[in-house]
Amino acid sequence: MIFLRRQLPLLITLVAGLLFAAQYYVPHPASEQMLTSATKWLQIIGGFALVLGVTSLFHLHAVKIRRQEAGWGYSLVLYAGMLGTIAVGLWADGKESIEGVMTSFGWVYNYMMVPLQGTMFAILAFFIASAAYRSFRARSREAAVLLVAAVIVMMGRVPLGEYLVPLSGDVASWILNVLNASVRRAILIGVSLGAIALSFKIIFGVERSYLGGGKE
Amino acid sequence: MKGDTVTFSERMLKIDRRIIFLVIGLCTLLPLLYPVGLPIKISSEVRGVYDHIESLPEQSVFLLSIDFDPASKPELYPQAIALLRHAFRKNLRVITMTLWVSGTGMADQIVTQVAKEMGKEYGTDYAFLGWSPGGQAVIINMGQDLYSAFPSDYGGRPTKELPVLNGVRNLKDVGYMVDLGAGKPGVEEWYVFGKDKYKFELGGGCTGVMAPGLYPLLRSGQINGLIGGLRGAAEYEILIDHKGQAVAGMDAQSATHIAIIVLVIICNVFYLSLRRAARAQGQAG
């Protein structure tokens, strides 16, 4: 049983990891066909992952409701929303509109989901302004540099800022294109090298946490 | 007197946040009601996308991936509308899709609305492939075989029967691709899993907060243009000479940016005056 739980997943990871790393450099039709099939599998697994995610969410909130934990009323709302949307979605065959005519699922989408998500995002502007006032302070030299750069970019990204300080647009553009791009690139290279190292550790079985901590 | 200043500064630093909310609310509302229409300068990033679409011959294949949900609608919806208007005006074959399941209905609405406005016919001039699960796997799958990733379009019609897709087997046959992304999968994924392997020209559009993160891709030529936030959309609307929601929203954005800058400056003035007072008190003590 240890073979099925430990050695087999490690072996599959090793073979799949090496195979698909090599595949990128082999343009042979057989290699391309293999990639086509594998990505099709990935899409199918992606679909199952969605079902798994919804099931897990249902389970989590069912426990909350059963135990009547703090905020369990919200879990009830979640249940009502999810089950209602699934029912309406199945009824409308998963389509928001059919030949230009809005379905009941489309109604839920347009008049509930769109305004709710829009409102949540719009509220951010108010909280960002409040947070900026409370915490964006020149406490140190580094913070002062950040503050000045932020003010210039904020000025340079809007017509009124460019109108008041004509140079702000060009300075903002320079900050974004030169300072920001070079630092971001350095971070990206570092992160990518880390990802490569981690991939090697997973492929060669050094990093095994993805196998879980079950009994041997 | 010094004590009074300290008290006033402290009081100002702890100002009721509802006052700040009111200021931001007014700065958003008033310019929308009374637009000023300040001139908007066109950036090279936005011009990159516009110029590439301008350079495409008629009937070239233009792929637009609408990878955002209603939360990012205020910034990315005007970008999508402007890009589609431009592509339809150029008589390109427009293929649209989404990698965000929660954005499917909105993407369908955007495409249908602009196509109707421009008098385009579904299947012949444009198609909406809908959503397919798998995120970046869909990109790779499209690079290998588009019909395997999307066997049917959003309406359930077999994609192989759509005349707009004639001669298109995979991403290599796409003339130009623009991703409007609000997160992952988005522009970066389209570069890493799409352009890098299948060698098509790629442009990007994103929310304002995401734009600085995509500048490395832009500067290295990995994407040939970037439409950033509402400002980017407004620039694009000016380039296609069709002012819309983005241009209308720029006055409000201008006012809120300036309001935040003024608030930050005020807060720092009070903060520094408090610090100076504390330092002077320490020296006296």
Brief overview, please?
The complex is a heterodimer of chains A (216) and B (285). Chain A has 216 residues and is mostly helical.
Tally of helical runs of chain A = 7
SSE string of chain B, helices as H and strands as E? HHHEHEHEHHEHEHEHH
The low-pLDDT segments of chain A are none
What is the C-alpha radius of gyration of chain B, as a whole number of Å? 24 Å
> Total number of β-strand segments of chain B?
6
Q: Biggest β-sheet of chain A: count, sense, barrel?
A: 2 strands, antiparallel
Low-pLDDT segments, ≥5 res of chain B: none
From the helix content, strand content and strand pairing of chain B, which structural class follows?
alpha/beta
Biggest β-sheet of chain B: count, sense, barrel? Answer: 6 strands, parallel
> What is the number of helices of chain B?
11
SSE-based structural type of chain A: mainly alpha
Distance, first to last CA of chain B = 18 Å
> Average pLDDT across residues of chain B?
92
How many domains in all of chain B? 2
Helix content of chain A: over 70%
Total number of domains of chain A: 3
For the largest interface, the chains and their residue counts are: A-B, 63 and 73 residues
CATH architecture of the largest domain in chain B: 3-Layer(aba) Sandwich
What is the spatial order of strands in the main beta sheet of chain B?
A: 3-2-1-4-5-6
Shape descriptor of chain A reads: extended
Task: Report what the structure shows.
The complex is a heterodimer of chains A (216) and B (285). With 216 residues, chain A is mostly helical. Chain A is built from 7 helices and 2 strands. Chain A has 3 domains: 17-91, no CATH class; 94-135; 137-206, no CATH class. In chain A, helix 2 packs across helix 3 (72-91) and helix 5 crosses helix 7. In chain B, helix 4 runs parallel beside helix 5 (104-117), helix 6 runs parallel beside helix 8 (187-198) and helix 10 (229-239) runs antiparallel to helix 11 (245-284). Chain B has helices at 2-13, 17-33, 44-55, 73-89, 104-117, 136-144, 146-149, 187-198, 211-219, 229-239, 245-284, and strands at residues 61-67, 93-98, 126-131, 176-181, 202-206, 226-228. Chain B has a 6-stranded parallel sheet, with helices on both faces. Chain B is elongated, with a radius of gyration of 24 Å. The two termini of chain B are 18 Å apart. Helices cover 55% and strands 12% of the residues of chain B. The model of chain B has no long low-confidence stretch (mean pLDDT 92). Classes of the chains: A mainly alpha (216), B alpha/beta (285). Chains A and B meet through helix 2, strand 1, helix 4, helix 5 and helix 6 of A and helix 2, helix 5, helix 6, helix 9 and helix 11 of B.
